[in-house]
Design brief:
By secondary structure, this protein is of the alpha/beta class. The chain has 9 helices and 10 strands. It has 2 domains: about 170 residues, P-loop containing nucleotide triphosphate hydrolases (Rossmann fold, 3-Layer(aba) Sandwich); about 70 residues, no CATH class.
Length: about 250
């Protein structure tokens, strides 16, 4: 469903000059799969996901979503993805209920279907208690839930989630993780970025470890463990081991 081939992105930064944010990365993600993009801050996760979501044009390489090219067929790609990032905006004056109606309509969803989807999403994300309170009065976790709800109101087959649990307490994070698993059961294709090993370990079917714009290892948890010389059961050990191997 998602094919990334030889993807590179170079930014021309005024202060830093040429920044190689992504250096020739490739991966695939199928339906009913959670693909984890795992890496520390600055590794290139957000850049990758922004390219997938048509928000950023690659310097080199090809990305296809459901067979559609993210550069040449961006409008069609946008219809079949839900993108959550730290920049997913909300309006302070709206309540969650109004927010969903607004973004549902923007995405061309009929009012009746918006209402049905809203009820379902708010139930699953445990949002019912605050659905009529203005966004300006919501906590960080509540807002994050609403951003997630906003990004999936059109029921897209592909979800691109950029560190969806950042800043959430453990209970809210768990609710979000459970919901992501439900998406997998529904057969969606999910790209999930995180810097939290435990999360990737619990959630992802396949993962790519990204470091300084390069994928340094890719596969199932078992495969990653097998390939690291630490032979540890702990993904965090594996991660540091792979980074060390990559630097040699
Ligand atoms: N618009 C931009 N202009 C210049 N450099 C950028 C821009 N966006 C990201 N970068 C750089 O690209 C690299 C990867 O960033 P990013 O994809 O945000 O990493 P992550 O999401 O894994 O923390 C970093 O060095 C970052 O500073
Ligand atoms: Mg990021």
């Amino acid at each position: 469903m998602i094919q990334v081939e030889g993807l590179s992105k170079i930014f021309n930064d005024k202060k830093r000059g040429k920044v190689i944010a992504l250096d020739n990365i490739s991966f695939n993600c199928q339906q009913g799969q959670i693909f984890g993009l795992l890496g520390p801050n600055g590794a290139g996760k957000t850049t990758t996901l922004r390219i997938l979501a048509t928000m950023l044009v690659p310097t080199q390489g090809r990305v296809k979503v459901k067979g559609l090219d993210v550069v040449r067929e961006a409008p069609q790609v946008r219809k079949c993805i839900g993108f959550l990032s730290s920049e997913t905006g909300l309006y302070d004056r709206f309540t969650p209920r109004e927010t969903i109606k607004f973004f549902g309509r923007i995405n061309g969803v009929e009012d009746k279907i918006i209402e049905k989807r809203r009820a379902e999403i708010f139930y699953n994300l445990k949002m019912e208690d605050f659905q009529d309170i203005r966004v300006s009065k919501l906590s960080t976790g509540m807002k994050q839930k609403l951003s997630i709800a906003r990004s999936i109101i059109h029921n897209p087959p592909v979800l691109i989630l950029d560190e969806p649990t950042v800043g959430l307490d453990i209970i809210t994070a768990r609710t979000v993780l459970e919901y992501v698993k439900k998406f997998r059961e529904e057969g969606k294709c999910i790209i999930y970025s995180t810097h939290i090993m435990r999360e990737a370990e619990k959630l992802c079917d396949i993962m790519a470890i990204i470091h300084q714009g390069k994928i340094i290892a890719q596969g199932s948890l078992e495969e990653l463990k097998k390939n690291s010389s630490s032979h540890s059961d702990d993904l965090e050990d594996v991660f540091f081991e792979l980074i060390k191997q990559g630097e040699v």
